[in-house]
Amino acid sequence: MTATSSSSSPGGGDHDGAELSARIERRWATLSVAIVVLFTAVAAFAGIHQAVMPQARVETINPTTLHLSGEFVESNLGSAVESDGSVTVRAIAQQYSFVPQCLVVPTDTPITIRATSPDVVHGLIIMGTNVNTMLVPGYISSLPMRFDRPGEHLMPCQEYCGVGHEGMWAKVKVIDKAAFHKLAADKRRLSCVDE
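The chain above was modelled as a monomer; its predicted structure follows.
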């Protein structure tokens, strides 16, 4: 008796395995490319959708007259206690300073910073916190925050605004809640000058 080969033609088994491997690799390559194309399409759609859709609440202001009347007149800048016990801080960023130069806020209190710019785009970042936004002329930025402990935080402009940019910074002074309310009882608006 003689032994017989299980394949129908000599060397055919290796050739069929190579073809099968090639087909499987092509399918995986196609699937990989399809996944990359899908992710790219989703990212592009999300980016374009975000860029063309306005925010839920956009507040505008005339940057050429904001200092003449309304919310951002000089006598209305600084920290103020609202009727619900929260604190609202109003500020303006202009070339090359923040007004007021120093913000006083209390600990353990809901705080809202409302700020804008009359001239160019500025950046507002409070070091050591997650507060970071751009101040665009014609728009009001509103930032909620809360401080747990007293201290001082630098507040530089982090958006290049011209030749004096490097000197544009302010300070946020966080004081004890009781001390803040004692100061606020005597004045309508607070800044570091009032301490």
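The longest strand covers residues 87-94.
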